[in-house]
C-alpha cells in the first residue's frame, strides 16, 4: 500500500459516506494540565452536525448547518450563535471527516507500519498537514486497514510535544439519524 493509494481509498470512502455517528475521547495537553473531553457527534451531508462535549461534569453542545453555528449551554438552558471567521478552520465540527481530509490533503504522508488494535490491524501513519500551524504540525494516525476508520490520532506541535489525542471509540456510517436532534427545540 502506498500513501497515495491509501489517500484515494479514503477519499472514496468519504465521498460515499452520507451520515455518521461517532463517539470518542479527546485529550488536550498543556505543560500544566491534561483536559479530557468525551465527544459524541452526528453528521448528515452536506453540512448538518451536532457535537456533544463533556468535560469534568460540564457539558456543551455545538450544532451547525453550513455557516450557522450554535452553542448550547445546558447549565444556562440557552443557545448562543457563533460567528465563524471567514477562512477559519475548526478541527471539530466534522470530527471524522476532518481527519480523513487531513490525510487526503496532507503535504506529506508516510506509512510507518502496521499495528494491531482490538478492532483489527491499523496503518500507523505520519502526516504533515498542508496548512502550517505551530500547534498542529504533525499527526500520528492509526487508520484501520479494513475499514479505513481512524482508531487513534496524536497531534504534535512544531517542537515535537504531544498536544492532543483523539480516540475514536465507536463509528457508525450511513446510519439513520433523526433530523430532530439538530433542532434547538430538541432541548426543551
Identify the strand order in the major beta sheet.
6-5-4-3-2-1-11-10-9-8-7
Using the 3D structure, state the CATH architecture of the domain at 3-35 and 91-187. Clam
Q: What name does CATH use for the topology of the domain at 3-35 and 91-187?
A: outer membrane lipoprotein receptor (LolB), chain A
Question: What's the main sheet like?
Answer: 11 strands, antiparallel
The share of residues in helices is 10-25%
Q: What Rg is obtained from the alpha carbons, in whole angstroms?
A: 17 Å
Give the CA-based shape: globular
CATH superfamily of the domain at 3-35 and 91-187: Lipoprotein localisation LolA/LolB/LppX
Notes on the structure:
This protein has 188 residues and is mainly β. It has a domain at 3-35 and 91-187: Clam (outer membrane lipoprotein receptor (LolB), chain A), CATH 2.50.20.10. It is 13% helix and 51% strand. It has two helices and eleven strands; from the N terminus they run αββββββαβββββ. The chain has helices at 3-16, 95-105; strands at 19-29, 34-44, 48-55, 58-65, 68-73, 78-83, 108-117, 120-128, 138-144, 150-156, 162-173. The chain has an eleven-stranded antiparallel sheet with strand order 6-5-4-3-2-1-11-10-9-8-7, covered by helices on one side. Helix 1 packs antiparallel against helix 2 (95-105). The longest helix has 14 residues, at 3-16.
